[in-house]
Write a structure and sequence with these properties.
about 120 residues, alpha+beta, four-stranded antiparallel sheet, about 25% helix
């Protein structure tokens, strides 16, 4: 994929296309996309990062090796178990992934219209 490709249109890019472009152009990436040991709780099968002021049951908190495929505010974005610390490893995970990156967004699990409801509430 190059800038002069006839299909150079961001609107149809997949998660894999984006990472391959990041690699090609050597674009710096924030650390949250790479695997680190992070404190999380499990909610509906998703690893949810906890904030420093977490007031919940500390017994449910686990420190696991994980990274984020999609970003949002805590705690609406979930992490995935991962050991990927390079862009090539991330691309490899994406190739093997059976789920969309959107499936780790806790906000989308509450109802079919939860994202639209948040827009109406002025969340975005």
């Amino acid at each position: 994929m190059r800038r002069d490709d006839a299909c150079f249109s961001f609107e149809h890019w997949t998660e894999r296309d984006i990472w391959e472009y990041i690699k090609l152009e050597q674009i710096p990436v924030v650390p949250i996309y790479f695997s680190l040991k992070r404190e999380v709780i499990m909610q509906k099968g998703i690893l949810i990062p906890i904030e420093e002021d977490f007031a919940g049951d500390r017994k449910k908190v686990k420190k696991v090796l994980c990274r984020f495929r999609s970003l949002g505010c805590i705690p609406c974005t979930g992490a995935i178990g991962s050991a990927a610390v390079t862009i090539d490893e991330i691309i490899g995970e994406i190739r093997a992934a059976k789920k969309s990156e959107r499936e780790n967004r806790v906000i989308d699990l509450t109802s079919d219209s939860s994202m639209e409801q948040k827009k109406k509430e002025g969340y975005f």
